Amino acid sequence: MQKSLCTGVVxxxxxxxxxxxxxxxxxxxxxxxxxxxxxxxxxxSGFYYGVQGGYAWGDSxxxxxxxxxxxxxxxxxxxxxxxxxxxxxxxGTFVTGVEADLAWANADGSGxxxxxxxxxxxxxxxxxxxxxxxxxxxFDAYLFYVTGxxxxxxxxxxxxxxxxxxxxxxxxxxxxxxxxxxxxxxTTKVEYLYADLGDKGAYTTPAGPYNVDLKSHIVRxxxxxxx
Length: 227
Prior knowledge:
Blueprint: H1 2-22, E1 46-64, E2 74-91, E3 94-111, E4 121-139, E5 142-159, E6 162-181, E7 186-205, E8 208-226
Antiparallel strand pairs: 1-2, 1-8, 2-3, 3-4, 4-5, 5-6, 6-7, 7-8
């Protein structure tokens, strides 16, 4: 009996040993690769200030309000340089904001036909500012927006031999632009604005009083610091 039991144990151990010898050898288990964590999206909310500069080109017309004689279009072109302040609020990808800017300007031109201008009619813009709302869509570090609001400017009109007057004008502006984040605090933008500063009385000659209107296209770049 004992001999049979020992024989059975030997047979079982032999079977286990043979199975272990035939089992495939498992290699070392690798740790799972770390999961990449996406970088946080840029947040456009916050206050900012900056500088901006660009070029303005436009059409000005001098009209004799007594006779209706018009100078035709007079080019008034030049550079702008100034500052900007504003604030944005972001909800999802939608961004709204307010922005104000004020710039020194050196945009002028002269010309016109003899029917309205005894001498050359001239228009000069000495400064330009806007107060606008902005609305757009953010794609991480890029913001595409439209904008519109009020425009203000110092417009001087006159003719050769007659004293011109510098008038503060109030009008409107609309435009569009794209802004990009360079770092967490610095952004840069390219913007186009169309500004209409209206048609107001500017000066008087012996032929009658003259209204001077001004419509400008503005392309400018800006650099902002966001808090």
